[in-house]
């Protein structure tokens, strides 16, 4: 091999050093605070799923369209934005310790993580019941099978259904444009609040803070936002004759 010959430039050789630089490492027990010493009727979780460093690219990674890769190659990955957790690490969280005897768990997931999500819910002490929400992000990412444009919220139950029950007309399908990376539409937490207006509720891996909810995670702001108006909450609560 000619020692003077320069190695061929590839998309990988362009993006890998930057990917390693930007990856966030998560020492779980050192990074996350302990779970609260409370019991909750409703738990809402958006686990920071690990995708094995899977990258998202745009057309700048195609050599024929970016000759010599003179332009920077666009790359994005979940672990550039926040520390991600593998399934075995997520199982270490003792979520069952904060779950009331009768508790509902709502968990965000994606297509590739569906099986892991059900396994995780069971490890936390819950039984998988159904898909509670389907989010049409009004935008898509490249997919190996079909274009990816939806995410899901799975519902799990421990014990009985928490009562009293609020609204029964919350829609499963919602369409809202995708915001910042991993940012979820507020319609979901609004819907859960309408369904369970009187129950004790907590959001895990939270990035916002809402009135009427407790929150646990790394990026929780001090101020609390209103989930919905008090009038709407009263309308969604059950009434006795």
Biggest β-sheet, characterized?
Answer: 7 strands, mixed
Order of helices and strands: HHEEEHHEHEEEHEEH
Biggest sheet strand order reads: 7-5-6-4-1-8-9
Q: Strand percentage, roughly?
A: 15-25%
The total beta strand count reads: 9
CATH homology superfamily of the domain at 39-48 and 85-236: Vaccinia Virus protein VP39
Total helical segments? 7
CATH architecture of the domain at 39-48 and 85-236: 3-Layer(aba) Sandwich
Identify the CATH class of the domain at 39-48 and 85-236. Alpha Beta
- Tell me, rounded to a whole number, the average pLDDT: 79
Question: SS-based structural class?
Answer: alpha/beta
CATH names the topology of the domain at 39-48 and 85-236 as Rossmann fold
* Uncertain residue ranges: 74-81, 229-241
Rg over C-alpha atoms, rounded to the nearest angstrom: 21 Å
Residue share in helix? 10-25%
Shape: globular
First-to-last CA distance:
88 Å
Walk me through this protein's architecture.
With 241 residues, the protein is α/β, with parallel strands linked by helices. The chain has a domain at 39-48 and 85-236: Rossmann fold (3-Layer(aba) Sandwich), CATH 3.40.50. Helix content is 21%, strand content 24%. It is built from 7 helices and 9 strands, in the order H-H-E-E-E-H-H-E-H-E-E-E-H-E-E-H. It has helices spanning 11-22, 28-31, 78-81, 87-90, 114-123, 186-195, 230-236, and strands at 40-45, 56-57, 75-76, 99-109, 127-141, 148-158, 173-175, 201-204, 214-216. The strands form 2 sheets. A 7-stranded mixed sheet has the order 7-5-6-4-1-8-9. A two-stranded antiparallel ribbon has the order 2-3. Strand 5 and strand 6 (148-158) form a beta hairpin. The relative contact order is 0.16. The model is unreliable at 74-81 and 229-241 (pLDDT under 50).
